[in-house]
């Protein structure tokens, strides 16, 4: 029970509440604002005077004072304010994500039926005997290669593909039709890009261009981040032009994203030609599977070349508004490629270690296929100054990194083997034409090899670098700067690192609140001091 009594005093009477059972005074209730204010004022006065406080209360006040001083010295109040502001921004983003979104802008796709995934047992279907011999290998795009030669694709259902072309496969020349924009925007984007391509220099490529990359002055802004593709930025290539920044990106599902980086600054002149909300990213799907290589060329057959695990090599011809099918194989899954521009031929590597040369003008093979490696060819790179030499990498065997003389390639014997103890995902010649080779190996090292054109393997630099990206992050591939004086590589710390090619020392490492994933792939603009860094989420970040 509760009872109320009045206590007299010189200032009048004050009501207090007692518990009848214990006789203890209870704290004031909310309907006693005046008494509560008086109590706080009396307590503050007691603290100031140092009287009527017990030893415990005085010790407590002293500890509070010391803690406040320590927090002020550590600048904790301001840090707490910054964290609160950052959390509020994350919860309420001020800007919408630039680039590809989860929902397409095309209304026709909204009406497509959703297919639910059901097992063969639930469907009442007997198991397929083609899987009885077991699995040969698993590809990075999620498909499984069976020992019998078939391919199990992961989708709405498990289906067996015995190297036969389905009616839904993308075969032949394809019109440019994006998956995220209307036909009006597709046409406007193609027209704008065509003008840039037509005005670009179509002469032979110049090597050793003095494009000085200054890593310490590079910066990443929020507007320079966009989701260019849906599922992992596997390969990127810059349009070789200084009038417009356009980067092409290929992903694991066969998409090719074209991003006009400065679209927002240039699009104001003709607003009626674009979809509402379009921000410069046009997403197309010219391939059925993982895009294993992508490259812009200007000499001879110019345009954007791309190859894929689906066995196709395509050329994006802006003037014809088509993805032209240059070459297709019914049995090979192309895992890497590069182009010999002077001879107008392309070198294709496949998932079984094979190497094929194809004439770009006719689309036909030049000679028989050569077995270069025991397993998949991870990368192919042509020496830019002397296109006779080609560097290839693989994952298994004694000849993981090889230098080939294309004049003697039919013998399937490399001119030089660069010794590596574990798998390598890339070996790139210096763009300056010095004959140096940059390799990225799973033994956690980046290596720079001296001029290999003399047939000798001389190690110039060896840098420890954590290359164990795991299953869900694309393997690192270190790339050269345009002038060949430095190289760059992603980091497990979510940084983009720049190294001096001569000394091997770390020049700079860039991280940003706008780059929230590991930048496993990068591409340096050949004519401007600009770098693109891609992540496994499909986002591309522009440092400039």
Q: Features of this protein?
A:
single chain; 544 residues; alpha+beta; five-stranded antiparallel β-sheet; four-stranded antiparallel β-sheet; 6 helices; globular
Task: Describe the structure in your own words.
Helices cover 14% and strands 31% of the residues. The model is unreliable at 7-13, 29-38 and 155-167 (pLDDT under 50). The protein contains 6 helices and 35 strands. It is of the alpha+beta class. The strands form 9 sheets. The chain has a 5-stranded antiparallel beta sheet, with no helix packed on it. A 4-stranded antiparallel beta sheet has the order 3-4-5-6, with no helix packed on it. Strands 8-35-34-33 form a 4-stranded antiparallel beta sheet, with no helix packed on it. Strand 13 (291-297) and strand 14 form a beta hairpin. The protein is globular and about 100 Å long.
Q: Sheet with the most strands?
A: 5 strands, antiparallel
Strand order of the biggest β-sheet:
7-16-15-14-13
Percentage of residues assigned to helices: 10-25%
What fraction of residues sit in β-strands?
25-35%
Rounded average pLDDT: 83
Shape: globular
Compute the separation of the termini in Å: 75 Å
Taking Cα atoms only, what radius of gyration do you get, to the nearest Å?
A: 32 Å
Task: Count the beta strands.
Answer: 35
Oligomer: single chain
Helix/strand structural class: alpha+beta
Q: What is the tally of helical segments?
A: 6
- Poorly predicted spans: 7-13, 29-38, 155-167
